Every structure is written in structure tokens, then in C-alpha cells.
Amino acid sequence: MATPDEIRATLDAYRATFSANDREAWLDLFTADATVEDPIGSELQRGREAIGAFFDTSHSMADSIELRPARPVPVAGHEAAMPFTIVVEVGGSKMAIDAIDAMTFAEDGRITSQRAYWDMAAAHPLED
Amino acid sequence: MATPDEIRATLDAYRATFSANDREAWLDLFTADATVEDPIGSELQRGREAIGAFFDTSHSMADSIELRPARPVPVAGHEAAMPFTIVVEVGGSKMAIDAIDAMTFAEDGRITSQRAYWDMAAAHPLED
């Protein structure tokens, strides 16, 4: 089983590569048949092609998206919940959305599923 | 469907009644066939009697347990993830555990399931 440190390293890379718009490195963090439900209630995306399309759509909706760590990540067995802040820049102004991603992991530390808790209605001006 | 405000009110009551050791008020926040998996990986508790036994066991392991809010709670549809800090007092000293509860809710705002992300290995001295 992946250790808590390996799981947290995957999550650090998840935020860093997504923020850097490094599509292939971000997709490499998932297993081949991984699923993404982002946000919860939206259509489930399964596999590299579908998850890659989600990545593209997300990045097309803003000039930049930064995923900032918010507090320590609790790990329980092969699952973890990552609190973070989505910082979205559009037309020179930045908005913040408080989010949590609930994830499961494979033996090698890669992501097998992601479910994202966030709501655009709770977006607020960024406090830096 | 329960509104985000109703869901957040249930979660405020969840932390307050658990911290106050108000067993019956805490149990009233769950539906009759609700489930609790706390922490993730432990045996699933279903229904008021089993969840009440979990409450009793938790409180028997410390002189006091306080659940402190940590940051805004993201709500997605009828689900929410609550970041909080478990403050455990034993023999006059306090420890803190960073936790997240992933929960689902019924139409009336009561809890239908709870899954708790935390790990005793990540406990640390309380920073007040």
C-alpha cells in the first residue's frame, strides 16, 4: 500500500502540475482506468482521454488556475482528502474557491479516483 | 434538496453537540439508517444504536474532545466535506488532529452517511 508520504507527494505534484498547465505530467498521476468527478454531481470522466478533456476544459475557462495548499492533508489507508484553494484569474482579477478533493490511490501512489467538493456560488475575492 | 445553508447548519450542530457531549442531540442529526465510517477503514456503523456506541467509545478515550471548525465547508449538491480539527484532552494535555469528514445528506438536511479522514499518526501538539 502507498504510504501517507507517497500519497501526499502525489497530491503535491497534482497541484503543481495542474497550476503549471503541465497536462501530460498531471495525467501521469492517474492510473489508466481512473475516474474524475469534478465537481461532484457532474458527469464521471474515466480514463486518460476523458480526464485530459476535463483538464483542457478547466484551463480554457480562465487565464490561469492555481491550486494552493490550504492545510495538512489527512490520509486514511489508501484514501485522502485534500483541502486547497482554487485561485482563478480572469481578465486580470482573481477569485478564490475553497475546495476539497477526496481521492483514492493505487499501490504505487497513483490516483484511482477523484471527487471534488466545490461550488462556484461560494467563490469570493482572493485575500492574499 | 437541502440547501448549502441547511447542510452547513447541520455540520455546525454536529461539531457543537459532539464537543458538548450531547449524545441525543448529536444522534438526532442522523437519519434512521445512516452510516458512519470513522476513521475510513474501520468497521461501518449503521443506525442509531451502532452510531451511539461509536459516540460512547470516542468520548471514553479522552477527558474531552472538541471539534473545531478549520475553514469554509464546500458543498456540492447533497454532499459536503468538512475540514476541522479534533482537539483531544487527556490527563491535562491537548493534542490536535487535522481531519475532514465527507458526508451525504437527506432532503431534510440530516446526515445519511459520514466517512472520516484522519490518522492518529498525524496528531500534533495543539497550537492555540
Keywords:
alpha+beta, 41% strand, 128 residues, 8 strands, 3 helices, 27% helix, homodimer
Q: Give the H and E element order of chain A.
A: HHEEHEEEEEE
Q: Give the uncertain stretches of chain A in residue-range form.
A: none
Strand percentage of chain A, roughly?
A: 35-45%
- Estimated structural class of chain A: alpha+beta
Could you tell me how far the N terminus lies from the C terminus of chain A, measured between alpha carbons in angstroms?
38 Å
Report the largest inter-chain contact: A-B, 26 and 26 residues
Task: Give the oligomer, counting copies of the same chain as homo and different chains as hetero.
Answer: homodimer
| Average of pLDDT of chain A | 96
Q: Which descriptor suits the 3D outline of chain A?
A: globular
**Main sheet summary of chain A:** 8 strands, mixed
Q: Over all CA atoms, what is the radius of gyration of chain A?
A: 14 Å
Structure description:
The structure is a homodimer. Chain A has about 130 residues and is α+β, with helices and mostly antiparallel strands. Helix content of chain A is about 25%, strand content about 40%. Chain A is built from three helices and eight strands, in the order ααββαββββββ. In chain A, strands 1, 2, 3, 4, 5, 6, 7 and 8 form an eight-stranded mixed β-sheet that branches. In chain A, a hairpin with a 2-residue loop joins strand 4 (about 75) and strand 5. Chain A is globular. The model of chain A has no long low-confidence stretch (mean pLDDT about 95).
